[in-house]
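[Automated response] Your request has been received and processed.

Submitted sequence:
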Amino acid sequence: MTEAQPLFSPLPDRSAEPPAPGNLVRSLRNNVIGIFPPEAYEEDVVFRRVFGRQQIIMSHGAGIQHVLVDNWQNYRRTAAGIRILRPLLGKGLLLSQGEDWRRQRRTLAPAFAPRTMPILARHVARAAAAAVINLKTAGAGAAPVDLLAAMQFLALEIAGTSMFSLEMDRHGAELRGLISDYATRLGRPNLLDFLLPVWFPSPRDLLRWGFRRRWLDLIRRLIAARHAQGSTGAPRDLFDLMASAADPDSGALFPPARLADEVATMIVAGHETTAVALFWSLYLLAGAPEIQDALAAEVEGFDLGPDSAATSLSGLVYTRAVVQEALRLYPPAFTLARLAIKDDIAGDVPIKANTVVLIAPWVLHRHRRRWAHPEVFDPWRFLPDAPPPDRFAYLPFGIGPRVCIGAQFAMTEAVLVLATLIQNFRIERADNTPVTVRAVVTTQPDHRPPFLLYPRRDR
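Generated structure:
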């Protein structure tokens, strides 16, 4: 195993005692990683009470399988999670429940089938090639580059082109501005989010729904712009696939309001998570030059243009391993919170009704019983000759019936973009200021570190 010295800081120091309510609220607002006590990284199950409610941090494989796979119908999203995400996602797939969720999932599944990946890979390749040109301009003369912003706009461009066949020059800044504003101001939970039932609005909820009106107006303008392009017959993007997706039983298409929520869900969930996955991949590679050199050697001979990207994908074995390892260390969805509807036993863990069960990829992926040297960046873990990780120790996209429907697309996008960037640039840090994680909605860095990009050759 090749062990590169990690640039990311070790797990933050914490008291062995549960955080005081005030400290817990601050952690929930500013950095959710702070809510996990040290023993969570050592023990299979941690019990505690938070805001008067039983909470379980579950790292027990059989328990996770029961909650997310075997008896997932008994566990729903928490009220806090719903009220924070609803203004962005509405009644889209991510937040729907019960029969409504089954109908949406069944209807959308064909749009994310393997046969659609060549269409999407073509869009990814075009956007990645354009990003290389922009980055060469931004980094001319070894000028420092903000790779977090670059990856956010690139992922948004891919979302726009792959979903709508629209260039995002017109709408990208507004989309990114609204999402960033929501995450900074209104997406941070406060105490009332955890204490009030989901149907009872708080003062902040009124602001959130004011945001939702502006957000839906933009989504509807995007859909109108796409409709104005007309149809070419064969599906050319994700919107064509979603707009024509019919319920297998009734044959009904998505009504306009529901289609808008599905589009919003795909834009937010798709571009934000992929952007941070790409950022952390590049950040880790900048601190591990021998791993970056190995990746560069792999991608050197591949044609990653629009016509060849899909067929080249299967050969990018080491590139995929780098992305998978970055997702292990910095999973964008760092915790899954579920509320038990009825009393249950998960594995051998008793769970009372109304207990909050936290299944945290951040904890699982750094759990000392499940990973050797869990804080070390080592893509070897995911190469074909390595022993595969435990099924319930690695959950970057969740697992079970509610596994992320866009997981294959996200991996396709991340692998192709990373391969294209490393094919064109050697990436280094421009300073040595430590970067730590700040997890609120996704696992963001605590600041925007500058990078230096050196062209590998004229391509």
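Summary generated for your ticket: The two ends are 33 Å apart (CA to CA). The chain has a mean pLDDT of 87.
If you did not submit this request, please reply to this message.
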